[in-house]
Every structure is written in C-alpha cells, then in structure tokens.
Design goal:
- It catalyses: L-seryl-[protein] + ATP = O-phospho-L-seryl-[protein] + ADP + H(+); L-threonyl-[protein] + ATP = O-phospho-L-threonyl-[protein] + ADP + H(+).
- Pfam families: PASTA, Pkinase.
- This is non-specific serine/threonine protein kinase.
- It is an enzyme of class 2 (transferase).
- It is a single chain.
- It is rod-shaped, with a radius of gyration of 46 Å.
- It is α+β, with helices and mostly antiparallel strands.
- The N terminus is likely disordered.
- It has 7 domains: 99 residues, Phosphorylase Kinase, domain 1, CATH 3.30.200.20; 197 residues, Transferase(Phosphotransferase) domain 1 (Transferase(Phosphotransferase), domain 1, Orthogonal Bundle), CATH 1.10.510.10; 65 residues, no CATH class; 65 residues, 2-Layer Sandwich (Trypsin Inhibitor V, Chain A), CATH 3.30.10; 63 residues, Trypsin Inhibitor V, Chain A; 62 residues, Trypsin Inhibitor V, Chain A; 59 residues, 2-Layer Sandwich (Trypsin Inhibitor V, Chain A), CATH 3.30.10.
- It starts with a helix and ends with a strand.
- It contains 15 helices and 34 strands.
Length: 648
C-alpha cells in the first residue's frame, strides 16, 4: 500500500490540469504505450478515464499518429459495448485521450480468479465482445489488440471493449501493415500479423478465438520462453481443442474454437458478426444440454485436406506416407504410425471375398449407408428445424408472443436506427424471416431506435479542432467556416454556429461555424497639436479610452495636445491612449507697484509680461501715483493677463 501511495505522489501528472479542463486523479492502469488515470472533466463535471501517452513517446511521429487515430477510430463507433472516446488533445507536449470511465474489473481478473469457466459462461462473456467488434468491422475498423486486459466488465455486468489504439481503417486491399512494426500482444496475434503484418476482420476473429480458449481452459494455447517462440507457434501450430485440457467440453465447442483460430484466415469466419451467429448456435446447443450435435460440429469443423487417392505403392502392395496403410485392390485400410522405426506392413486383414458375392455385399452396404444417411439427414436437416416466422414491425412483446406460438424463444440481440421502422419495433431478426431455425430455438430481435438523429452540441468557446471532433463523433459534418473578429472570444475559438445548440439533425447534415480572429486591430490617429476636445472625440469614436494629463507649456496654446502616446500603429478597442494637454505658460508673480508713479508701475508690469489697465480713483488728485492694484502684489497670474492699477 505504501509503494502505491508513493507512486501516486511521485507521478508528475497527478493533480495537474490538462488543457485547462481535465484534473488528473489516481492512476488506474499502465501499459506499454500509455498510462490511464481517473480524471475530472471540470467543464462537464463528470469523471472520465484519461489515457496519457508516455513521456518521450510523442517524439515518435508514427506513434503519435497512431495515438491520435485511436480517438478518431473509436469516436466513429457508437455502441453500448465499446468504450466511448470523448475528446483528444495535447497539453505542452502531452498527448491524451478522454474516455468513458468504466469502474469494475477486466476479463483478465475474471480469468485469473475463476477460470476455467463453464462453456456457457465463457460464451456469454464473449458475445458482447463480438457485438463490439461487429460494429467495428461494419465500420471498416480492425481492432488488432483483442486481449483480456482490453475487455472491461462494469459493476453492473456490462462488457465493453477498450483501447482502439492499434486500430486501423481497412484499406481497399485489406492490408494494414505498419512499416514492418508488429502490433498487438503476442499471445493473441493472428498468424498473418506475424508473417506479413497484414490484418483484417478475420485477425480479430482469431484473437477472439484465443480469448475463448483461455476462458475455457485457464491457459493460453501457445507458450514459450520468448515472444518470438510464441509468435512462431501461432504460425506453425494449430490451437488444440479445449477439451484436451479441460474434460467435459462438447465437440461443437472445440470445433468453434478451432474454426475461429484456423491458421489459414480463409477458413475462419469472415468477421465478428459471422462468428457471433456461430456462437449463438453453440450457445443454443448448450442450453439444450446436448453432449454432441454432429451437424453443428460438422458445420464448424475446419475442412481438412483429403487424403490423396493415388499414391506411390511399395513392393509389398501397401500405400504409405499418409499415416495409413491401404492394401491394393479391395482390401481393408489399417492405420499405422507413419515412418515409425522398424514398422512393418500389417498382415492382410481379410482375403478377397469370392467374386460372385462381391456385388451383392457392395449393394447391401450401399443400401444400408443410404438408409442411415437418409435417416440422419432427415433428423438433423429437417425434423429438428422449422422456419423463422416474420416478426418485423412488431413490438418485442408481440414478437415474443408470436414466436412462442410456434415454440420459439426470443432475445433482444441488438438495436439499430431506421428511417422506416418506428422506434421500439422489430426491424430485423437473426435468423432472418423464413430462414431455418432449430425447433425451440432462439430468435435474436433487432429493435429499431427510430430515425438516426443527433442534437447539435454546444460548440461556442471550443477551438476549431475540438469543434470538428465533436461534430464528427455524432456524424455531423463541419460546413462553412467563417473567420471574423471578436472583442470577447479568443482567436481560434468558435464564436457562434448554425443551426443553434440542441437542434435535432440527421447524420451528414452540416453545421456552419464562425471562428474568432481575435480582437480587430484599429489604426491610431495622431491628434498631436489638435484642440483637446477634437482629439478626445476622434479617439473615443475609434474605440479607445483616454488618459489625459494637463501641464504648462510656453509654446503650445492652452487646451491643445502637447503629445500623444501612442500616436501611430494599431491598438484594440478599449485600449488607452495617453494625451498631454497644454495649460499654457506657467503663472507669474504680480510685482508690487503700489506708491509707484504710473510710468514706473506700467514698466514693471509690462516687463513682468502683464498688460496694464489704468483707472482713476473717485477722488483723483492728479498725482498719478498708484493707490491700488488687481491682482494684488504677490499673486500669480497668467502672462499676458491684465493688471488693473488705480491712480490718485
């Protein structure tokens, strides 16, 4: 416990917020390429699983592309058995995926604790895995890394397939080689991935077959001291029947495993959906308690190359080299150990019957075989089967009742969108209407979810890539992108979009985006020397705020702009422009001219920069002496202003 705590504390990501949105919590799991954390999506207030690429691996451009491809591949899959991928991003060189958080355990935990599993239990766990893979294969996606660690089992029993990190969209040629790089976990690799790196849906089928073998037996079919030895075994050795390790497994279960894991991919089921149908047939036989079902076993058995009819004979009249000895002409075939040291031809088992009896014996044998084959064919091919009734456009309840009338059972197999079948009604069955089905068998119902529709997500404030991914994940198309200035939305983020948020739309419909270029730049006019009122009006009209300072100036008239900062270039709306406004020349002290004669007083005031106005006292005596002045002596006044002197 202490070691785990120390690991969490020392983890550089625990507690960090990625992309300003995801607060990283406890570490959940660690793999070869990435580490998974429990995290909080602070924007949507929900717990997510955050898959973070290991430090330094982002330098590998190919790996980075594969990591990003995981989000794009998984986002294309909307299925209850696929772990949903919500978002993909990068934060200061750290690549991550935000995925659905599935609390519970993995299939590896189940195998470790409970294997070997009963065949019915193993098939019940495999079915949702195949359902998820069927959706992937329908979308042209190959998982390439099916293993118990990637099968999650929630607390409520829901099974989900995770980690499409190695997935690739299938090319038209069916080849998905990645420059010679062998992907996937070696214990579950299909032979073709080892030999030439190619993969298609049948490669996932092989891995699913290995998964089933491990659930049934508690061990892997191929082991070795090194991964190369295990990979070699996949190419050169068949997967053994599970019953060789675990008694009591019916032959048709053995045949199912060996068909899915055939080394020749052409002998495997074409994809997960085909394998699902075979699994359901096997599950039905198990429910009936059949120890064997020759027809089902025969259908699933991997075809074996027939022994050659013509071979080289030895001198003793024996055919060798196939594991059998066959006497010439009409004598009996007896198996021997081919190539065994000291092996000698067996004695002839029977002499030739007299020629006259041979025709009769042959006729009786043929008739007996025909009767037996006919009886078996009637029982296994006709008597046990009936036709699947038409259950389309019925509710599941009504479909179950109608199937029950002919002794058949139903189960909800899947759901799908339909433009023609109303929501909640049966849109398809497995087997299809009219197809052969075993009496008392089970019909899988595919129920309509109604027309496929999606609500436009909230895109405002998202960066352009995130907005596109949000639309891609619900099969909506990014339409016209208009770049425009915004005073409130940062550059590169969505300002608005149409249709508006929560509008219901069909898949493939377009959503138009308006993306911010950031604030609009505004040219700054130079108002230096202009009257302050004119300058203020012009700058405010341009969208700027004014920061005004007044100061005395001997050269710039009062009220005019002495300087402006900045006075050129561009600013943004609501930015400040500083103005320094002239208060005119500085105030000067008025000299004391009282008791001076008028001529002397006039000169003193004029020399000080003032104008002089002379007024006579009411009791003027003609002395022309200054009896008073305004402003008074010692006061300060503007140069050029008038000083009134009163004379007596």
């Amino acid at each position: 416990m202490t070691d785990d705590v120390d690991t969490q504390v020392s983890d550089r990501l625990v507690g960090r917020v990625l992309d300003g949105r995801y607060r990283v919590g406890a570490r959940v799991a660690k793999g070869g390429m990435a580490t998974v954390y429990e995290a909080l999506d602070m924007r949507l207030d929900r717990v997510v699983a955050l898959k973070v690429m290991h430090l330094g691996m982002g330098d590998d451009a190919e790996f980075g592309r594969r990591f990003v491809a995981e989000a794009r591949a998984a986002a294309r899959l909307s299925h209850p058995n696929v772990v949903a991928v919500f978002d993909q991003g990068e934060d200061d060189g750290t690549l991550f995926l935000a995925m659905e958080y599935v609390p519970g355990r993995t299939l590896r935990d189940v195998i470790r604790q409970s294997s070997p599993l009963a065949p019915g239990r193993a098939l019940d766990l495999l079915m949702p895995v195949l359902s998820a893979l069927s959706a992937a294969h329908d979308a042209g996606i190959v998982h390439r890394d099916i293993k118990p660690e990637n099968v999650l089992i929630a607390h409520d029993g829901t099974v989900k397939v995770a980690d499409f990190g190695l997935a690739r969209a299938v090319k038209p040629t069916g080849q998905t080689a990645t420059q010679g790089l062998l992907m996937g976990t070696v214990s579950y690799l299909a032979p073709e991935l080892v030999t030439d790196g190619s993969a298609d849906a049948r490669s996932d089928v092989y891995s699913a077959g290995i998964l089933l073998f491990e659930m049934l037996t508690g061990t892997k079919p191929h082991t070795g001291d090194t991964p190369i030895q295990v990979a070699y075994a996949h190419v050169h050795a068949d997967v053994p029947p599970p019953s060789a390790l675990q008694a009591g497994i019916p032959p048709y279960v053995d045949a199912l495993v060996q068909r899915a894991t055939a080394r020749d991919r052409d002998l495997r089921p074409a994809d997960a959906r085909v394998l699902s149908r075979q699994v359901r047939r096997v599950r039905s036989a198990l429910e009936e308690g059949l120890p064997d079902d020759p027809e089902l076993t025969g259908d699933l058995t991997v075809p074996i190359q027939q022994l050659r009819d013509e071979s080289e004979y030895d001198d003793g009249g024996y055919e060798r080299g196939t594991g059998y000895v066959k006497l010439r002409n009409d004598t009996i075939v007896v198996p021997i150990e081919s190539g065994a040291p000291g092996a000698s031809p067996p004695a002839r088992v029977a002499a030739r019957p007299p020629r006259r009896w041979r025709g009769l014996i042959a006729l009786i044998a043929v008739l007996a075989l025909a009767i037996g084959a006919g009886t078996a064919g009637w029982y296994y091919g006709i008597h046990r089967y009936t036709a699947t009734p038409v259950l389309l456009n019925l509710s599941p309840t009504d479909a179950t009742a109608k199937a029950g009338e002919v002794g058949l059972r139903t189960t909800l197999r899947d759901q799908g969108f339909s433009e023609t079948v109303p929501k909640g009604q049966v849109m398809g069955t497995d087997p299809a209407p009219g197809d052969r089905i075993r009496k008392s068998g089970e019909i899988g119902l595919i129920v309509s979810k109604g027309p496929e529709r999606y609500r436009v997500p909230q895109l405002a404030g998202l960066d352009l890539d995130s907005a596109k991914r949000a639309l891609d994940s619900i099969t909506l198309v990014t339409g016209k992108i208009t770049d425009t200035y915004s005073e409130t939305v940062p550059a590169g983020r969505v300002i608005t979009f149409t249709p508006k948020f929560d509008t219901v739309m069909k898949p493939g419909n377009t959503v138009n985006l308006w993306v911010s270029l950031g604030k609009r730049p505004i040219d700054v006019p130079n108002m230096t020397g202009k009257q302050v009122g004119e300058a203020t009006k012009a700058l405010r009209k341009a969208g700027f705020r004014i920061d005004r300072t007044d100061q005395y100036d001997e050269t710039v008239p009062e009220g005019n702009v002495i300087s402006q900062t900045p006075n050129t270039g561009t600013l943004f709306a609501k930015d400040k422009v500083k103005l320094v406004v002239s208060k005119g020349p500085a105030l000067r002290e008025v000299p004391n001219v009282r008791r001076k004669n008028l001529a002397e007083a006039r000169k003193m005031l004029t020399d000080a920069g003032f104008k002089v106005k002379v007024e006579q006292a009411p009791f003027h005596l003609g002395l022309n002496l200054v009896a008073g002045q305004n402003p008074a002596a010692g006061r300060k006044a503007k140069p050029g202003s008038t000083v009134i002197v009163t004379i007596v």
